[in-house]
Amino acid sequence: ITCYHASVAQKSYGGEKRFLCPPPAVLMYGEGEGNTDAATPRASASAHAPLECQTSFNERNVALFKSLHVTGMQKAKSFRLRLDLITPPGLSGQLAGHDQSMWQSPKPYISLQSNPVAIISKPSKKTAKARNQSSCIREGSLISLFNRINSQTFRTKYLNVEHNTNRWVAQSHNWSPLEVVVTSSKSSRAAMCQAGAANPLYYGSEIVLVESRRNFRSPTMIIHKVERGRLVENACSPVSQMQKIALQVKPAAPGDVPRYLKADVGHYSPTSSDANTPAQFDDPDGSREHASDGGIELDDAFCWTIVGI
């Protein structure tokens, strides 16, 4: 059993519900992966008052908890997630030959607890410090990317690698943890911005995103900072949690038109016949404008929120 969840979460105020994004995911695999009916996953988020959510495994042995949110935490700076596996009602008749007492108990037969998840009020607009471990995205770490049109939660799409086609797509119902592999570390830029830094991910770096379970590898991309819907050119600060970014596929030649990953059409699929098939990213020329200071305004579909896993 593997559990994936964001390393930070936004706090909810009043009657609002800022759901954990991406939703915590539980993956079951091994000898029992074809018998997910034998377990009902239940997750709870707690610092002071626990909030519980119960779901079921889908056909790919993945369970998503889409209604967990952070509320009533008062001045807590972090919380933990707890995963319980409980026996579904009516299962005892299918367990002949097994220890019935364990399966019939109202208590969960498996409980797992996460590391602390940091609580933030809103994404930081300040320049991240490389020494701040909790706020920086690190090289080699796992991340999730999601896109939201007009800040509407019901229009949220997550970057996901499809299990049957091995395509990189934007979906509202599933997401994939992606490893950040830096192909060009921008060491001179890093030294200029933060001397003595460890290994934070810096804007302007060339990266590849890897999904190891599907043996998927993205094309090389350049990560850019986005503020108020506008590309921040020449940004060299560390990438911070929950900040908005744009991913530009690395140009094949100088002077090529820049193309960025777009939520509603962007996907990339390597083929056996041609491993260098270019990603189907879009040129945002039809929806962008050059601001007075030279920046480029991007449509929401090109802006992604990055969060560590």
Which features does this protein show?
globular, 2 helices, 309 residues, 31% strand, mainly beta, 6-stranded mixed beta sheet, 6-stranded antiparallel beta barrel, 20 strands
Describe the overall structure.
It is a single chain. The protein is mainly β and 309 residues long. It is 4% helix and 31% strand. It contains 2 helices and 20 strands. The strands form 3 sheets. Strands 2, 4, 5, 7, 8 and 9 form a 6-stranded mixed beta sheet that branches. The longest helix is centred in the middle third of the chain and has 7 residues. The radius of gyration is 21 Å and the shape is globular. The two termini are 16 Å apart. The relative contact order is 0.15.
Order of helices and strands: EEEEEEEHEEEEEEHEEEEEEE
Largest sheet: 6 strands, mixed
Number of strands: 20
Approximately what portion of the residues adopt beta-strand conformation? Answer: 25-35%
Query: Roughly what is the average pLDDT, rounded to an integer?
Result: 77
CA-based shape: globular
> Mind telling me the C-alpha Rg?
21 Å
Separate helix tally: 2
Low-confidence stretches: 193-197, 271-279
Percent of residues in helices comes to under 10%
* Secondary-structure class: mainly beta
Distance between the termini: 16 Å
